[in-house]
Amino acid sequence: MLNLAIIGGGPAGLAAGLYATRGGLKDVVLFELGMPGGQITGSSEIENYPGVATIMDGLSFMQPWLEQCFRFGLKQESKKVVKVVKNKDQSFSIFTDSGDEFKAKAIILATGSEPRKAGFKGENEFFGKGVSTCATCDGFFYKNKEVAVLGGGDTALEEAIYLTNIVSKVYLIHRREGFRAAPITVEKAKKNPKIEFVLNAVVDEVYGDKSGVTGVRVKFNDGKTKELKVPGIFTFVGLNVRNSIIKNDDKFICNTNETGQVEVDLKMQTSIKGLFAAGDIRQDAPKQVVSAAGDGAVAALSAMSYIENLH
Fold this sequence. Notes:
Layout: E1 2-7, H1 11-22, E2 28-31, H2 58-70, E3 75-77, E4 81-86, E5 92-96, E6 101-109, E7 113-115, E8 131-132, H3 135-138, E9 146-150, H4 154-163, E10 169-174, H5 183-191, E11 195-199, E12 201-209, E13 212-220, E14 225-228, E15 233-235, E16 239-241, E17 247-248, E18 251-252, E19 275-277, H6 289-308
Helix pairs in contact: 1-2, 1-6, 4-5
């Protein structure tokens, strides 16, 4: 039986693995299908992590984490977890999509979040063929072309600014006049000559042909529409937490809020003893790398204390 299972390999999961193994805990396994690093690896630039003065992309930023976090004995299982169950003996069972079952004394949920769909017509049809949620992944395909960006938060504006280094023009579409993004980011975007603001508008439809997107129709609050002849649109309209693994028979095994975020106390303890949550999946998460890493450290220390007191 594992002492601790960490599900999710983003900043929260990796920090949890580092603190647990460096703290002397044995039999700690990180469940992450593919290369750990998390959603931040798709970010174009990180400039606000304390102690890291160099501005770098998310992939480069996370690279040293992998070496450091596996140095003290953390092991990885490259398997997709589909369900977590609390057993009568107080242990947990972890089921994977390949039919494997692992048992653990404690679990840290660090499954994070994923980009939310905007819900406009053509979004699903052209996803991956002109509709994207990752500027660093797909921006290169639109070199010297015009593209659209949908959203009004920090991510949307930051990625719009990043895209101006590649494309000829960015139409920034936002449903309101004001932005949720930090004022310094808004100011930077407004000063960028390659960004044209399309405000008080929503995307009505994305259309195209077999080769992909050929245009975006936006609809303004007054009912008027405008056609943007662009081959691509990047959407940044929020995140949904990845919580499906803690849902059994349409009920969550621990307490969650109305949006499905896991309720925790200051020790990252959920309503189920031995089950902890860290990072974007927990309630009121700031969705910042530094916060996720802090959550992971707290969760690991709490889990170690819980395991120690089992006997």
